[in-house]
Amino acid sequence: MTVPAVQLSTGPEITRPDVHTVYMSHWFVDGAEQGRAVLDEIVDAWERTPWFEGVLSLSCYLSSEHDTVLTYAQCANDDVYRPFLRSLPAGPARTEPIAYRPYRSVVRDPGAGAPGSLILASFDVDGAERQRRVVNTVVDHLEATPAEDQTGLLAAHFHVSVDGTRVLNVAEWTSDEAHAAFLDGASRRRVLQLSLDTPGVRPIGFKRYHFHRGLRF
Questions:
Q1: Which of 78, 170, 172, 182 has CA 20 to 30 A from 205's CA?
Q2: Rounded to whole angstroms, how far apart are CA atoms 29 and 36?
Q3: What is the pLDDT of residues 34-73, one digit of tens each?
């Protein structure tokens, strides 16, 4: 089936209700020029390939250090994305992803504009029960924390990997600078301590990304 793809200008709607599975891939690149070229190649391949029903969107990001690229694909079910990948031209567009489920979100300002920075904070986790436990603990804390303690945070979207080994906080911020200021504050230290205090959960770290291009079907 072929339908026209719509170019995204501000990234995906992470909380859209029809998303069942998110597929993420990331890999290293040698600078901004190569990173943008790789992402353009991926989006162009998607745009030229007949659409599979159930594939909802693709968004591409370049890290603020210009050393890593990220793809974020939203799908309505588990059955469509890998067959779609196999239909793409050989190259970076066919990079094998990790499958995640959107689990819980904290949205500070539903009417806020497009985020200036996307922060991915990752955790190594021992199984599905620990995934849910650490996410529920951190989300409950964020919801109880005054917004002024997290100035610049627009939303935090927690994803759990289907295989039970990872948790990702995909956080939307107004800017890199706002996130950097948060890192120096007490609120960030409390959030980090909550994850450190949860058995079977090991924080890996974070990386900042900027939206490059995307498509919605």
A1: 78
A2: 9
A3: 999 999 999 999 999 998 999 999 999 999 999 999 999 9
Choose among 95, 2, 83, 97: nearest CA to 48. 2
CA distance 189 to 183: 8
- Contacts of residue 147, defined as CB under 8 A and 6 or more positions apart, other chains included, come to 108, 153
Which tokens go with 12?
A: 């995906």
Cα(187)–Cα(97) distance, rounded to whole angstroms?
32
Work out the burial of residue 203: count CB atoms within 10 Å of its CB; fewer than 13 is exposed, 13-18 middle, 19 or more buried: middle
User: What is this structure's pTM?
Assistant: 0.94
